[in-house]
Amino acid sequence: MTRAARGADRRRTAKPPPDRATSRFTTSDGTALHVVDTGPRDAGTTVVLLHGWTLDHSSWNRVADALPGRVLRYDHRGHGASAPAAPGTATIERLARDLAELLADRVPTGRVVLAGHSMGGMTIMALAETHPELLDRVAGVALVATSCGGLAQISLGLPERVAALVARGEKVVNRRIAALRGPVLLRRPRLVRPALRWLLFGARPDRADVTATAETVARCHPAALVAFRESLSEHERREALAALAPVPSVVLAGGADRLTPVPHAAVIADELPRTRLVVLPGAGHMLPLERPAEVATRIARLLR
Q1: How far apart are CA 42 and CA 217, in angstroms?
Q2: Which of 65, 116, 127, 257 has its C-alpha lying 20 to 30 A from 290's C-alpha?
Q3: DSSP secondary structure letters along 96-151
Q4: CATH number for the domain formed by residue range(s) 3-303
Q5: Domain spans of the chain?
Q6: Hey, CA dihedral for 259, 265, 52, 96, is it positive or negative?
Q7: Model confidence over 172-212: pLDDT tens digits?
Q8: What residue ranges of the chain have pLDDT lower than 70?
């Protein structure tokens, strides 16, 4: 897709946002989550959007504004405007429990469509693993730029030796980040912009999207950033996909995604007989920002 076409894609989803009802939801372990709830509360089906690691609900803004009906979003613990994750709770399994509790409180009845980007998709897999009884209410699932495992061996498209050096360097950096008090990276988000542009985006990304993403990542609580990174490496839930097999689904992948490349999406699709694998050429990992209209269209089809 050309840069002009991507601009048109954004403009098609750039209508004025609806009134957003924001609130706090407190989980069973006392963690306050920031929740954004839009659309009619009596909708027969609610779309729940789950964001990725180090991001927040705003990464879904363009997609949410293009979807009909009720849309529920929130910031994971340790992310965005939610409270920090208590020691030992920054795990994908705990995120699945947060999701189950939020659904019980905010969407106690009716059908739901779950859409997860990156770690959000992994949260849906963990929900299927730990709360399979909830899937009776799930009308559809969208797994966006995500993986069911093998993330500890990701090469980022680099030669093997270079990838090994990067992995060792990441461990050193993460130890230093974990020692920080509060999201002090917010003072200098521009320092991480070049790396995030290369790591998260495809060809010719919008500069404003890269800047906004860097600022969001900089707000992530340091301890949560590092702990969730460890949980991502431990994420192995291919078998959990069996619980999602009866649910209509779509798997979306960016053709230039370095973090969760197309083969990871193909593995997921192979396990889901009622899914469609959609590869968006030239797009990177940030599909809700890079291809919002296409992502919204695929989620909306699950509503029908």
Answers
A1: 34
A2: 127
A3: HHHHHHHHHHH--SSEEEEEEETHHHHHHHHHHHH-GGGGGGEEEEEEES--SS-G
A4: 3.40.50.1820
A5: 3-303
A6: negative
A7: 455 555 555 555 444 555 667 888 898 899 988 999 999 99
A8: 1-20, 153, 155-191
